[in-house]
Write the structure tokens for this entry.
Amino acid sequence: MSYSLAELIISAGALVWRDDGEVLATGITPLPRLAASVAKSLYNPALMITDGECYFVEEPVPLGPRSAPIKVEGWAPYPRTFDNLWIGKRHAMVAPVQIDRFGQTNISVIGDHAKPKAALLGARGFPGNSINHANSYFFPSHNKRALVAGEVDFVCSAGYNPARYVQGKPPRGLDLRAIITNLCVMDFNGPNKAIRVTSLHPGVSFDEVQDNTGFELARVEGEIPTTPAPSAEVLAEIARFDPHNIRATILKDNPPGDRRAA
Amino acid sequence: MSYSLAELIISAGALVWRDDGEVLATGITPLPRLAASVAKSLYNPALMITDGECYFVEEPVPLGPRSAPIKVEGWAPYPRTFDNLWIGKRHAMVAPVQIDRFGQTNISVIGDHAKPKAALLGARGFPGNSINHANSYFFPSHNKRALVAGEVDFVCSAGYNPARYVQGKPPRGLDLRAIITNLCVMDFNGPNKAIRVTSLHPGVSFDEVQDNTGFELARVEGEIPTTPAPSAEVLAEIARFDPHNIRATILKDNPPGDRRAA
Amino acid sequence: MSKPLPLNKVTSLDGLVGQIKSGMTIGIGGWATRRKPMALVRALLRSDVKDLTVFAYGGPDIGMLAAAGKIKKLIFAFVSMDHIPIEPHFKNARQAGLPVMELDEGMAQWMLRAAGMRLPFLPTRVGIGTSIADNPMFKRVTSPFEDGEELIAAPALKLDAALLHVHRSDEKGNVLTLSPDTFFDDLMARAADKTLITAEQIVSTAELDLARNARYHPFERAIVTAVAEAPFGAHPTSAAPDYELDMAHLKAYAASAESPEVWASYRTKYVDVSPEDYLAAVGGADAIRKSPKAIY
Amino acid sequence: MSKPLPLNKVTSLDGLVGQIKSGMTIGIGGWATRRKPMALVRALLRSDVKDLTVFAYGGPDIGMLAAAGKIKKLIFAFVSMDHIPIEPHFKNARQAGLPVMELDEGMAQWMLRAAGMRLPFLPTRVGIGTSIADNPMFKRVTSPFEDGEELIAAPALKLDAALLHVHRSDEKGNVLTLSPDTFFDDLMARAADKTLITAEQIVSTAELDLARNARYHPFERAIVTAVAEAPFGAHPTSAAPDYELDMAHLKAYAASAESPEVWASYRTKYVDVSPEDYLAAVGGADAIRKSPKAIY
């Protein structure tokens, strides 16, 4: 069965919430959001998810214009968001602009903070999220501008950077899980929490990943597995949650999941 | 016009809120509550008052069984109570069991705290109230068991006791106003915030007040005024807010306001 | 691949009690005579659980646990039945030397908030100048800013379990509390490792009508451990608007503090019985529904 | 003795602006494109007030004030129009070197809470390990308990004035916010010396029906300074359920960041006009009421 790279990413992304138990699954930007939807639908029905505004919903809300009313099961206004995240009951997958070897990410500025070359969104809730609950990251373009050498320009979410902690010890709430890009899946289980490639998307080599990364990557022992193709069941769920095919607009030219098929 | 001692106390009590502006007026136990009702009705319509449960009401709610629905103008659940009192927007008149020369009061225990002779209510919100907003006190029986020598058995509300503060300085929120008893009206404007008799109820002498007080009292200069008799307007408002004449049951034998009339 | 089973947190009263172990620190929701999980408290009295450290804005919940000797230490700011200002069983226990930690009402919820935020402490002025602050459990913290003020560091009031009574719940633990006052049930739930809930009714998620009732939804289900249906489970306290407090029963309960014999007889009749027999003994559902609105 | 006059806090938009002085620190309620007091912001743009330190969960409120050169210093965690992720006027100002203090979203409301409790600071872990914590405005505080943890001491974010838009108010400043999300307007109001409010409608106290709408009542009137009626006062942001955001207008507004000339023309047409002319210029009341529900 053919599938797009976006679908592969969603399929791989869904797995990050599989064993989380009853937490809020937040996916920001369309692919992570679809991943969270699939995770709830197929792997972990205890997950809490929202309508993107301020309600918890029983079933994932499809992207874009809606043909059916949402099924509300709870209230999730912003004040509640912080109450919940401060007790750690959340796993978010977000899409930062930069990440460094410590897993520190940036969505605030490119360049100097006082007078940036590019002003972005601002740190939003990244600092609080990063030290309170599990976090995973998505990068649509795996390159050295996104996976940077040195430190990110402004550290919005904390990472495993001993220089930034008293006695080098990160807070117990810091829990970085996965990074999913257009090339591969990574985790933080390399030596000293180093970022480690755990699977390569079909047709991608480790060297290509390393060449497009600003810092040295660890790798799982032995041959690096290939990111598993989405099952028919997963593809059907993805289609159900994305009836307007917004997923086809996220990655440039909507490449196939197996680049050798292109 | 004849009036009861309870009515005199209510009338004098109402004056404590006159110049407070827009704050929550809380009167605990029937006479302070009636005093707050009169204050809002006649002197300071900006006062906020509650139904005794969790609503702000436009007009004072009469004591006891009600013949008309309450006119709600806001929500006052307990969480809101603390939000409000912590910014100081309140003046409470409460009825402690003991008070000492510093204005410290007690509603927790008589005797040793670990194994009290008499367990009372517990400190409730007295500690927080006392250092955040204005407080006045009512004592139905002015005697040495209530206005005690030394310190009260357990300091529930803070007073002007330098020994209990860093460098002797009470917090800026401490603001003790009036004490009203069955014998007199007092304030805290004696030397070094000492308790001072400002008016004597008709037929009461300063010596009688002093003889029934466990600590030395200051007095206003010159002849101590007599607590003014309630006006006809005040008496009418009291009757309106206390249609079941609960005020007649508070002081033993419901004495007249001018004891010489007995 | 077969889909995993949906969440179901429904259990019995005894199932809830089974989550409470001797020596735990528990918090009990509601306030004085309002929305107390009394059916759960009675079930706790029937169990072997003991040596509890208990925090509550206390009413007959605390009185009963104290009378039954379940409390090792009481954390409180008051124990009252509102119209009966001092809870008589609490008074007996306190005067017999029950170990206590006395707090201010507002400080108590602030300490719950600290626990619910996983912070070791929160600063406050509340307690300054009073005997409350003499308790060595409180430390001091100095503002590191220009003001340099010395404040009380109030430690987090962490709970092993929170016992709450709500109006409606679904099987997943989405709940509604419909009362006029919310009290601090939400902070207790966040401060607790386990949140154990009794509900007047367990209904479908759709029946909760949460799109309309969002503001009656006190906390997200992720912090709810288990739920048991307990109709009239707050009696003799109120679960307004479903029903008001039962003043006659509260007076009978208060009178049971007169002697160990009277308490034993109250206990036989109202505690050591099934919820169904309890309901019959207190006059039945219709009688409870007819209780007049309490005036405070 | 004649009874004193009842409270009346009603004024005009300009009356509200008159309470705001150059150099003040102000907070603006709502969130990004939701329930922003835009009519009041436009009135502020028409005034001589300048050199403001401004905190907001920012949207076009911040963009407009920045474009008009009213901001001396911006305190923020983001400035966004949701569907247009980065506010373009904010982006221009920021890249031109507008002085800022950047916070985390959750930390910001925690700092408002400190101010609303009159505390000098509150402890938090938020910011640890990030560039946010490099700002010397943050100090450190060590837990005086066994854990000995070092936490960030986040200073109180005290406001001279909070600018909020609500759905209904009476003359005394009893208000209702009917939106799906409450945001942090309540904390801003408590953190501020003055709370300045625009309301979709000013109605009688009875019409607020507060017995039924209690949970839509965000704070007590004692902290409300003044109220002005401003129908469609949140436009182009939403005041759901009264009306939704106006995406077409937000796009036109965003496009005005292209050059000073385009901004000047936007300003002439939509800012330097009376509220009545504004309403006509954006298509009238019926058009606003027909905006489709926004999807986030």
Remarks:
- The mean pLDDT of chain B is 97.
- The CA atoms of residues 24 and 167 of chain B lie 32 Å apart.
- DSSP finds six helices and 14 strands in chain B.
